[in-house]
Structures are given as structure tokens and as C-alpha cells.
Amino acid sequence: MPAPLGHILIVEDDRQLSGQLGQLLEHTGYAVQCCDDGSAGLELALREQHDLLLLDVKLPGLNGFSLLKRLRQHSRMPVIMVTASNAEEERIRGLRHGADDYLAKPYSLEELQLRIDAVLRRVRPLGARQAEPEQLTVGSLRLDRAQQWAEAGDMRLDLTPLQFRLLWQLVAQRGEVLSKPYLYRVVLDREFSRYDRSLDMHISRIRRRLIDAGLGDVLQTQHGRGYLFA
Q: Is the pTM of this model over 0.85?
């Protein structure tokens, strides 16, 4: 089973909403844990390992601002605060307490996913990129990052520089489903748009090169989630 894109804790008192969010994020590729109480949510955030906290402001037991203030005494876990109000003073208060981003209801899943990807990218990649090897090898497939070539056996794959970077990212995170918004930001260096088909076109060409090289269907489309190098 592919590794999740990340582990997200949702602290939201509306159980129906948190359940829907959890299902949607799991479908996108995240592992999700939900909690409907502020005090219990703080305990979970401190006791268990999560990559990001999606935190509602109005909670029983302990409100979101108080939870965040206490959390920041012990943890730098990324936090996106969610509120029914778009008031500037609430956004400023949340950011001053240490929130990494702020989202007002109602919001779309696409916007939420973009914000999650952006926050995780800010806190994850610097050390990860520094630790990246110069070459990757999976079976007969070899990639050289410095010279930007890929070959399978004795066959050099005909890839553009952008296609090489896409393949490198997918192979480097082999077994993980990489969402379209994530690939747009990390590789294409621009925001995702549902009307932009350029990523699909590049993936299709990379897949064809891999199949022609005898590697089979190792680059897979996970419908509604993204792409996976198996």
C-alpha cells in the first residue's frame, strides 16, 4: 500500500464536517485523524506524530486560540486555522499565536489541499533536498540529477528538462501518490489550475518513454488523487 502524503490531525467540533474532510483528504492520499474537543485535540497533538494540524477556532473544552498557544510551548507542528469568520482581527490573532496559515469557511477542497501542500512544502523540503542523492536507481532505471539524464539498461530516455524533473520527483518519492497541486508547485513552479492540462501531457509522454524502454506501467494515475511511481 502506498505511503500517505502526510498525517493530518483535524480538530473540529462539527463531526459531520470533519468526517467529510477526513474522507476527502484520505481519498487525496493523506492519513487523517479526527477529534471534536479542544482539550483532547491538544493531547493528541502532543502525544502522537502528525505532519499538520487543521484547527477550528470554536471548540468545546479548549478553543482553537488557546489550544494553539499551549501547543506552541512544546511543538512546531504546522497549523492551519479554520474559522467561520473572515474577520481580520481573528486572522491576525491566529497568526500571532503561531498559525502557519488561516482559512475561512466556506472553502473548497482544492483550496484546502493547495494550502496543505504549500505549508508542508515550506516545512519539509529544505533538509530533504539537501539529503537528496545525485543518482537514483530503481531496477534497470537510472537517473542522474546533475546531468539530467535517465536511462533504462542501455537505452537513454528522450526527456525534456521539465520531464526529467517530474520523473525524478516521482522516483524520489516512489510509492507515494503525489497530487497535481503538489507537482505544479514543486516541479512546474506555478499554481495548479484545473484548466491547465500541461502536467497531464508531460506525464503521458514520460509514461510512453518508460513503456518504450520496457519498464511497463510503473507510472500510474491515481484518479482524483495524483500520480504514483510504483
A: no
